[in-house]
Amino acid sequence: IEEEGKGGVDRFDSPGKGRGLRVTKRFKVGDLVFVSPAYSYVLSANERGFYCEFCFARKEGLAKCGKCKRAFYCNVGCQKGDWAMHKLECSSMCAYGENWCPSETVRLVARIIAKQKTQKERDPSEKLLQVEELEAHLDKMDNEKHEMNETDIAALHHFYSKHLEFPDHNSLLTIFCQVNCNGFTVEDEELSHLGSAVYPDVALMNHSCCPNVLVTYKGHVAEVRAVQQINPGDEVYTSYIDLLYPTEDRNVRLKDAYYFTCDCKECATKAKDKAKMKLRKLSEPPAPEELRKMFLYGRSIIEDFRRLLTMCELSLDKMGAVFDDANVYMLHMMYQSMGVCLALEDWDGAASYGEKIIKPYSTLYPAYSLNVASICLKLGRLYTALDRPSQGLRLLKKALVILEVTHGKDHNCVTDLKKEIVQLK
Ligand SMILES: [Zn+2]
Ligand SMILES: [Zn+2]
Ligand SMILES: [Zn+2]
C-alpha cells in the first residue's frame, strides 16, 4: 500500500475492527484495487514439477535442482532467485529422503524466519513492521491449536535446524499464530491449492459476508479486484470464509478461526438463510427442536471431519518420528487419512496419501488382495480425475489383474473396469 491517497487505498482505524483499508477514489466492478507481492511464499509439495518454485509459472519441461531433484524451475534465473529459500530445504530433503515431511505451515514459517534475518542484516534499525504487525491472538488459542503449534515447532526444529537460527519459543509461537490467522492459500482458477503465502497488505482488509473485493493470484502475487462498486471513503472488505453456509455457521467459523463475530448486512438480515436451510416437503413438518438438533448435527459432522484430518496428521507426525512410512500402523492411519481427504474433496491430499500407501501394500499383502485392488482403483481413478491419465491407467490395469482372479472374468466390476481402461487409452 502506498502512502495515503496515492494508490487509491489507505489504512485507517475501522470503528470496532482495528485496522482496515479504505479507498480514496471510486472503483467500478472489475477494477484492480491493489496488487500485493508475497512477503514470503511456498509452493505446495504436491505441485512440485508442475509449477516453478520461484515464480509459480505453470509449464511443461521445468528443469530440476541437480542436488535434491525435487525442486523445479523455469530456468537458471529462477533457480538462482529461489536459492536463498530453497537452500533451507535442499540438503535437508536429501538427508531425510522419503521421511522429509514438514507441513506447509512449517515450510512457510521457516521462510519467514530466514527472510526476517536477511532484513535485519540489511538494516538493523529497520522495523520489521510487515510481519510483526500481524495479529497473533496467542491468548485465545484452545488446546487443540496449542498442540498443533507445538507439533509444528518440533517439526521446524527437526527439519530446519541446520540452516536457521531460531528465535525463542514464544516468538516462534507468535509467528505460527500469525501465519494461522493471516496466512493465505494461493489458489488457481479451479480453486486448487498451489501453495501458501503471507501478504501483510491483504491481511489488513477486514471481513464481510458481502465483500466488495476478491483476492486472486497471478503467480504468487495477490491481486485485489472490486466485485461491487466502492466509493471514496468506503472500507474495503474481503471474505475470510466460504460464504455458502448460513449466518450462524459462518460466525461459528469466524469465531473459531479469527476470534470475532461479523456484523455485516448479510449477518444482520440473514436474507439468504431460509434458502440455505431449505427443508424437504413433508406431510408433517419437523418440530422446531428436532430441526435444531439436525442442524447442529449437520454442522458438527463437517467440523468432525476437519478435526479428524488434523488428528490423522498429528498421529502420523508423532508415530513418524519412530515408525517408517511402510510401518503398518502408519499405513493404516494414512489409509484413513486418504478416506477423510476424499470425503472433504481434497483430491491432492488424498493422492499424496495413496502414493505412500500403494507400494508397501503391494508387498505386505498377499499377491491377490482386495485391499490392494481397492487402493489401485481409488488412486487410479483419482489420477484420471487429476489429469494424470498414464499413471491412472497403470494402476487400473494392476487392479484388473487382481479382480479377474478374485471376482472372476465375468463379473460386472471386471467388465466395467475393462471398458474404463479402453476409454482411457
Ligand atoms: Zn520460474
Ligand atoms: Zn535442491
Ligand atoms: Zn457477515
UniProtKB/TrEMBL annotation:
Annotated coiled-coil segments of the chain: none
GO function term, MF aspect, one: zinc ion binding
Keywords tagged on the record: Chromatin regulator, Cytoplasm, Metal-binding, Methyltransferase, Nucleus, S-adenosyl-L-methionine, Transcription, Transcription regulation, Transferase, Zinc, Zinc-finger
Enzyme Commission number(s): 2.1.1.354
GO cellular component: cytosol; nucleus
Residue span, MYND-type domain: 52-90
Catalytic reaction list: L-lysyl(4)-[histone H3] + 3 S-adenosyl-L-methionine = N(6),N(6),N(6)-trimethyl-L-lysyl(4)-[histone H3] + 3 S-adenosyl-L-homocysteine + 3 H(+); L-lysyl-[protein] + S-adenosyl-L-methionine = N(6)-methyl-L-lysyl-[protein] + S-adenosyl-L-homocysteine + H(+)
Protein task: Protein-lysine N-methyltransferase that methylates both histones and non-histone proteins, including p53/TP53 and RB1. Specifically trimethylates histone H3 'Lys-4' (H3K4me3) in vivo. The activity requires interaction with HSP90alpha. Shows even higher methyltransferase activity on p53/TP53. Monomethylates 'Lys-370' of p53/TP53, leading to decreased DNA-binding activity and subsequent transcriptional regulation activity of p53/TP53. Monomethylates RB1 at 'Lys-860'.
Name by which UniProt lists this protein: [histone H3]-lysine(4) N-trimethyltransferase
Organism (species): Denticeps clupeoides (denticle herring)
